[in-house]
Structure formats: structure tokens, C-alpha cells
Amino acid sequence: MSTLKDTSVSQHHILNKLSATRLPTISQVLVKLLALCQDDRASITELAKLIWQEPTMAQKILSVANSSAYIHTGPHVRLETGLIAMGTDMVRMLVINESIFQNFRGLSRNVRLDLRAFWHHSLTTAMIAHNAARHMGYDHDDNAYLSGLLHDIGRLALMTVTPEKYAPLFYRRDDEALCIQENHSLGIAHTDAGAWLIQYWKLDPAIAESIQLHHEPFDRIQNAPPLVRTVHLANQLAYCDEENPMIEELATRYGLDTDTVAAIMSNVREQVQQAADYLGIDLSDIDPVVEEPLIAPTTADQADMNREILNLLNSAEFGRFFIRQTSQTHLQNAAILAACNILKLNHALLFWHNPAEDKYACVTTDTPSQKLLGISIPAHAGSVMHMTAEKRQATFLTSVEELTMAAEKNLALLLGNTNWIMIPLSDAKRSLGVLFGSLDPEQLDELRQKKWLIKNFVEQFILAWHRLQETRKHIQQEVSLIEEKYRHVSRASAREADSPLTIIRNYLQVLNQKLETQGSQKNAVTVLKEEITRLEQIIHDMVEPPRESALSDMKALVPEVIRQFRETNPAVSIREERNPAEKNSRVIAPDTILKQILINLLRNAVVSMKNQGEITITHEGIKERDGKLYYALLVQYRESLLPGTKPDIQRLSESSASEKKQQELDMGIVYSLLNQIQAWIGTHSDINGTIFDILIPAGPLYRK
After folding, report:
1. Residue 129, Cα to own-chain centre: how many angstroms?
2. pLDDT tens-place string over residues 626-683
3. Residue 436, burial from CB neighbour count under 10 angstroms (0-12, 13-18, 19+)
4. Residues near 196 by Cβ (< 8 Å), separated by ≥ 6?
């Protein structure tokens, strides 16, 4: 019996369909109710308040409480009174039954199934598990009841996602033979599908384990947790009447005496009938459960057809897995994962061919040792790895002596096991690499019979690699086009930035914005005078630029720029961060040019943020680039968001044409000024904001 951690390709196929199907979700009232019923301090009032959250559930309980089965003092009882009369155990079972039954009530209409036999067996197993839990050493009999009720829920899930294939199996007896039939027809048993569904519902993992193992041979579960053993026993007792001789045998096997099992089985039939009546399930005239023999050997034609179907499933599975990878490294790691999980290799190394040096180097592995990374094998005639790549066929090795090179022998010993396989990752034009894996003898024999599986593995890997290369080429072309467009805009902006008229136009736009925002707060004439004075200084600097050898102190200059900018933009939040370890911050650049660079970057940030957010100027200190020393300064702006909100991407993308042109002009000025002082700038952006990384030539005190 396979586990969820060791799923086959066919299982993945079904589980993917389960993920994509709108399966019913478990009632949250049920989840909370289970926790509340296990709390000894919980009151009837709390229980009633929780049940009232689902009116249908509350009405069901009230209808039962008002039935002739319970004695009460008035013609109609309140919910709290009904809960007291019925008792916690009865309420718990009723809510569990109703929750599960309501979730799948519509299934019989959708697929035209008679679910009465299914619910009869599920209710019987649940009631027996509830009665047996304490005797099996399990204290939470409510969990035992729920596990028993859900132990075959995987059958409904499989019927939901693949009704045509599963319909012939739905009325079969719930035993190990059914699991064999399911694995044969679908590649997955209802035990695994049910366990997956419990995990999907986020219920207790112990319930998932009991469902997954309820058809395991007894010797595999005799030391399992009590809940697993309880459901395992309940499922078998559910097919026994009170006189069945199997009861005594089961009692001995599970360490119970016959009287205990008899007590567990007593009144189960009446309890199941009562639960069915409450749920509105008619258990009369149920067709007998079909017992099927184990699968007969398939004919050659059927075997070929099964192989073809599995071949298609594996191709699709490999393809979906490989095609999702976004880089060559991710694709290489995916090859290792697929080889270990689908080809069933115990350990694997991936050697990538380096044409320049004509060797194969280990680029990734699933082993804990990272020392293997970088080990290389020469690509010459004496190498089995090279011969495998040349002939483009897998090489099966049953002895380390079949390897001719010492390096290959050492790798085989490091991988462990007694058998190995080399799989060439090659297309018609070139060899990309070779997968070197270890496995047991029986695994090797199985892979010899499934060479088509290896072929699919290689073909889908190569297909994903070629698609990755095409994507990379397309991205490079797009980047080249953007770079060329950006260079064109930068040149145009730089030419326009050299004109004093452009500077005047830019500042008139800023002036207009200030007059709109500051209106009554500041006299318009004062603002105008400030801008004219600033404009005169800019034009003067452009006509008579300072000498390039001028030195500036960044730690003194940045606060002055921030102060000046705040005078005209008081609403903007600007923060400065310094590196305490940096003793000197002088750079080779005039103050006036540096101020204009920072002013334009700050203005660009304000326009981008729509005046909502924070600007941070960080002194990074000295950095080396291409053998030269620079002073690094970061100008970063981020959107200001309320907790739990996301950036308004639509608003960010809907900047007006004038704003975009303004930003282009600002950046054109920045690039022009940076070129004058031989400085560098890098830009990193995401949906939250942008970081400008500026490198300015360091002052003489930093020179080596």
C-alpha cells in the first residue's frame, strides 16, 4: 500500500484532479464542536451558541429533541433544553453525521448513485469504532466515531473526479481486493484519496492516518497508534453479524476478549438505524455488497494499453513539472527531484557538460554532502559517463568494476547501494549532461522493463530546456529593445536638460503644484520669490559650472538638501540613515551638481508616490568598482500602506502623461549631471517603490 509521501505518477494525476475539483468543504461548526466537546469546562450554553451558527443543524437537533424518543415538559423545547435531554454524546454524533451527510448529499443526484449501502457501512463502522475506542486504549471516542464515518470518504472523492472509471467499483465490498482494483484502474486507492481529503480539510492528521491504513495487513498495524487499530478493527466487524465466527478470531488478534467484542457489537444495528432515521436514509432493501476476486492477469493487448495510458500520464506529469521551472538551475534541481521520486532512484547526481573544457561537472545532488558539487569527469573515450552520453542510451551497472575510471568508481561508492544507472540528457544536436543515480537490484530490474519511462523523462527535460532557452532569448531581445529606447530617451532628455528653458518649465510645474496644495498656508508671492531665486542659481551654475575637482562632504550636503526640499514639500516624509563607522564622506563633485541630482531624485519620488509614503537616504559608505573607490548613497522610496492592504497597482500604472514626462525629464537631468562628475547610478524597482543606488567618486582621503 503506497503512502501520500510516496505517490506514483498516476496518484499525482488523480490528486491533481482532486485539487482542481470543487469538493465540498468540511463544516467549521463540526471542527469547533469537536474541540468544544473535548473540553470538560464547556457549558451547554456555549454548545448551543455554536450550533446556532448553522440554522439547518440547529433545526435538525430541535426536531430530534421534540420527537417521541425524548421526554420533555412542554410542547416545544429550547435548544439548550434539547441538548440536555439528548446528552452530549448523542448531540456530537448527530452533528457529525449531519455535517458529513450534507456535504455529499448532492452526489447521488449528480452521478445517479444509490448511496444507502455506502452510508450504512460508514455509520456501522463509525458506531463500532466509537464503542471500541476505550477498549483499544483511545480516549477520544468522538474522533474514533468521525474516523469510522469518514474511513471510506475517498470512494466518494474518486467517484466525484472520475465517475466513468470508478462507477463499476463503487458497489464493491470495502476490502483489500477493492484497493488492488482501484490501483489497477486508477493508479490510486480510496485509502490514499481519503487521507488526502482529510489533509485538504485540515482535520486531525491522526484521522488521515487511520483512513490511509484501514486496509493494511494486520502485522503492519499491530504496533500502530490506537486510533489506527480501532478503525482497522471496526471496518472488519462492520461486515460481521453478532453470530459470525470471525468475531472470536478478531477478538484474539486485537487482544480483546470475546465478551468485550460482544459488548462493542451490541445494539449497533439499532444505533445505526436510529442515526439513519435522523438523517432521512432509508436502509430497507439494500442490495448486498459485491465481493470481487483479485484481479485476473491481463491479456497482452490490455497490458499494452495500460502501458500506453501510463506512458501518457508520465509524459504529462514530467512535462508539467519541468515546464514550471524558471531557470537552468531550477530545471537541474527538478531533474534530481523527479529522478528520485518518479524513477525511484535512491540518490542522484547531475553532471552538466562544459563544452569549453570538454568535461562533465556535478552541478546538483540530493545527497547531504555538498563536497560532490564541482567534481568533474573528463569527456573522453575511457569514461562510461561519456560513452553513455555519446550513445544516448541509459547504462545499467550491477558492479562498480564495470566503471573504468577511478573517479567514477569513487562516485558510485559515495552514492551507495550495489546498482547504478546513468541517464543521458541529450538531444539530436548536443549532450547537456548525464544523471548518475544509485538504486537497489529490484529497482534496476524494474527500470530495465520501463525504458519508455526513462525515455519520457529525458524527452520532457530536453523540451523544457529548449523552451527555457527560447524564453531567455526572447527576454534578452526585450531587454535590448528597452535599453535602446531608454538610451534614446536619456539622450533626448539630456539635450533638453541642458536648456535653461527646460529648467524654467520644470519649476513652473512644481510651482503650480505648490500653489494648489499650500494655497491658504503660504503666500503665493513668497513661493514665487523662492523659486525665482533657486532658478537664478541653477542657471548661473549651468553658465559657469564649478571646477570638476571641487570636493563635497556628503554628510553635510544631504541634510541641507533635505531641509531645502522640506521647505517646499512639508508633507513629504524624508529620513536619513548614516553609517557610524564611516569617518569621512568627502567626494569629488561640486555641491551644486550633487544638490540638483538629489533634488530631482526626491521630486521623482514624490511624483511616483503621489505624496503618500516615505523617502529614505542611506549613506552606504565606500565601495570599490572596477578598481576605483566610490562613495555609495541610496535614495529609496516606498508606498505607505495601511496594515492588511496591498499597493494600488492600477493607480500606480495610471500616472498622467504630464507626470510621466516630468519623471523622464527629471531622470534625464540626473543622468546628465552624473555623467559630468563620472558617477554611476543603478535602479531597482517593485510594486512598492524604487531604490536608486548612486556611486560618486571618493575624495582624496580614500585613495590607496
Report:
1. 36
2. 778 889 999 988 765 444 444 443 444 444 555 666 666 667 778 878 888 889 888 8
3. buried
4. 4, 15, 18, 154, 157, 208
Q: What per-residue confidence (pLDDT) applies to 654?
A: 45
pLDDT of residue 483: 72
Short-list 177, 157, 189, 136, CA closest to 1: 189
Q: What is the pLDDT of residue 494?
A: 54
CB proximity list for 66: less than 8 A, separation 6 or greater: 72, 76, 77, 82
Q: Are the C-beta atoms of 497 and 669 separated by less than 8 Å? A: yes
The bridge status of strand 628-639 relative to strand 689-697 is: antiparallel
Confidence of residue 295 (pLDDT cuts 50, 70, 90): very low
- Compute the distance between CA of residue 189 and CA of residue 212 in angstroms, rounded to an integer: 9
Fill in the amino acid letter for 51: I
**How is residue 340 written as a grid cell?**
528520485
Q: Specify the pTM.
A: 0.42
In the chain, helix, strand, coil percent, each to 5? Answer: 60, 15, 30
384 neighbors 408 (Cβ within 8 angstroms)? yes
Cβ-contact 598, 561 below 8 angstroms? yes
The Cα–Cα gap between 337 and 340 comes to: 5
pLDDT at 290: 47
- Residue 420 near residue 443 (C-beta atoms within 8 A): no
> How many CB atoms neighbour CB 116 within 10 A?
17
304: which 3 cell numbers? 499494452
pLDDT at 296: 38
Under DSSP, the state recorded for 668 is H
Dihedral sign for Cα atoms in the order 582, 588, 594, 598: negative
Question: Rounded to a whole number, what is the largest CA-CA distance in the chain?
Answer: 112
How are strands ordered across the β-sheet holding 680-686?
A: 573-577, 613-625, 628-639, 689-697, 680-686
The distance from CA 48 to its chain's CA centroid, rounded to whole angstroms, is 38
Question: Measured between alpha carbons, how far is residue 92 from residues 54, 66, 131, 141 in Å?
Answer: 14, 17, 14, 11
**Using 50, 70 and 90 to split pLDDT, how confident is the model at 558?**
very high
Q: What's the confidence (pLDDT) of residue 234?
A: 92
Question: What's the order of all strands across the beta sheet hosting 395-397?
Answer: 376-378, 359-365, 347-354, 431-439, 419-426, 395-397
Say yes or no to pLDDT of 150 above 80: yes
The CA distances from residue 187 to 61, 309, 599, in Å, are 41, 11, 66
151: nearest Cα among 226, 232, 97, 246: 232
Joined together, the cell numbers standing for residue 562 give: 533635505
Rg (CA), the chain: 37
CB 518 within 8 A of CB 571: no
Residues 493, 665 contacting (CB under 8 angstroms):
yes
Q: Predicted confidence band at 327 (pLDDT cuts at 50, 70, 90)?
A: confident
For 688, residues 6+ apart whose C-beta sits below 8 A from its C-beta are 638, 639, 647
**End-to-end C-alpha distance for the chain, whole angstroms:** 70
Alpha helices (H) along 554-681: 554-568, 591-609, 649-653, 657-676
Taking only the tens place, the pLDDT of each residue in 467-501 is: 888 887 877 777 777 777 766 666 665 555 555 55
The answer to whether 597 touches 674, Cβ cutoff 8 Å, is: yes
Say how far apart CA 525 and CA 507 lie, in whole Å: 15
Q: What is the mean pLDDT of residues 34-61?
A: 73
Name the grid cell of 135.
477498549
Eight-class DSSP state of 25: P
pLDDT digits (tens, 9 = 90+) for 530-551: 666 666 666 555 555 444 457 8
Task: Give the cell for residue 668.
Answer: 534625464
C-alpha cell at 389: 552520453
**Cβ-proximal residues to 249 (8 Å cutoff; 6+ apart), any chain:** none
pLDDT in tens, 184-240: 778 888 898 888 888 877 788 899 999 999 998 888 888 889 999 999 999 999 888
